[in-house]
Predict the structure.
Amino acid sequence: MLEINLESEPLSETWRNDTVSVLYELARQFPGQPVTMIAGRERLLLLQDRGRIRHVLVSNADKYLKNFGGFEMLFGRSRFTTDGDLWRQLQAISQPYITGARPAEVVTASVTAFERAADRLLAAGPGPVAIDPILNRATGDVIADVTFGDHGLDIENTVEDLRNVLRFGSQLSWNIGSLSTPDDENERRIADASRARLAQSITAALERSGAMVGASGLLKSIFEMEIEGSDPVAEVAALLFAGLDTSAAAMVWGLFLLANSPDLQKHLRQQVRGVLGNAPPSLEMLQQIPDLAAFRDEVMRIFPPVPMLGRISVAADTVDGVEIEPGQRLMLSIVGLHHDPQTFPRPGQVQLSRYKSGRLDGAAAQSHMPFGGGKRICAGVRIGNVELLTAFAVLLNRVEVKLADLSPLKFEWTASLRRRGGQRLMIAAAR
Ligand code: HEM
């Protein structure tokens, strides 16, 4: 098997500063191949192919646990980070609220939030405009509305505090052996202050909903849960993060790809306007826009908001000829899976023609895994998909985007995949 010494230069420097660009490079040079990444005494197994990744996530999932160390340290034990009985009990609390969200309500909440985002983008234009904070806020509003109900949380500040904590948490999660980034004192101070503010505002929201006689909802259920080892504040923070950061990342990359291709932008805008006219979007109308869902799926294929999943094995296993010992740390590269040219020729390009009658099929469908897979698959697949479809329709209708920054792409992996330093675009009212 291919072995790569992560301590060799210039790789170690790149790994520390831009882990995700290493994933893209491995996908380009060694598509589909398993790779052992060595750092001192640590040996990490990186998988990039459909068969082995599905084996770990889906068919043999019981032999693997989640590995999300940094987040647990910062957020405490939540449904996102735990496994086994505790995870099952926590899952049972929030799952009905997440999967129970009605798609029509997600459309309504998304129209409101993204019309407001369009106003804010246009007010900040022509730019260059930093689009991440505006889209973070919009996805925060949607998730608060559709899953938390009457929450009373200050979403603007909550979103920024969550991101500060996550930026630090993601550094800790992927530290390996000698390649650990030195603990940045300033980042830690910012993260600690944000965590304290988050704990205070989430505790207040939980207590308010707990005190409401006869009220129901996700916050109340979390407030009332009596599960040993659980942490209500961590649970709310993790659910907020899971619901907003990933969707916002997909939105940001979607606008970047549209800015990169004015013809594609024009084509999709025409389709959106052809179907919607002046009417506010409904789910049925959104589903009739021929290429919109394919575009959304291409965005998440090219720039998967969660570029890699971490697992740790609890039992010996063999995955298509690769021996796995108990305790082995695994990295499942969603970037590798989505950029294998055998499955997705010219993987870096948006190609709507991959989606026959709007969908991928065969091996391509099995390889498209932006939401993960198996028993730990994203709980918000439906919310995320409907929200993104609505948001792209609203923004294409209102806003024209152009590139402002022609420098080569560098990535920042805070909880989800972002452009280093943020994405800046030129903004104008769409004609
Ligand atoms: C484009 C949007 C989204 C993407 C790409 C995404 C991606 C993911 C991925 C890859 C995982 C699995 C992580 C792993 O296996 O280690 C996950 C888990 C999860 N996601 Fe999402 N997500 C999105 C939106 C949402 C939304 C809107 C919600 C709604 C609240 C949500 C809630 C969750 C939850 C609760 C989990 C943990 C599931 C569990 O293990 O119990 N996500 N997401």
Remarks:
- The first strand starts at residue 2 and ends at 5.
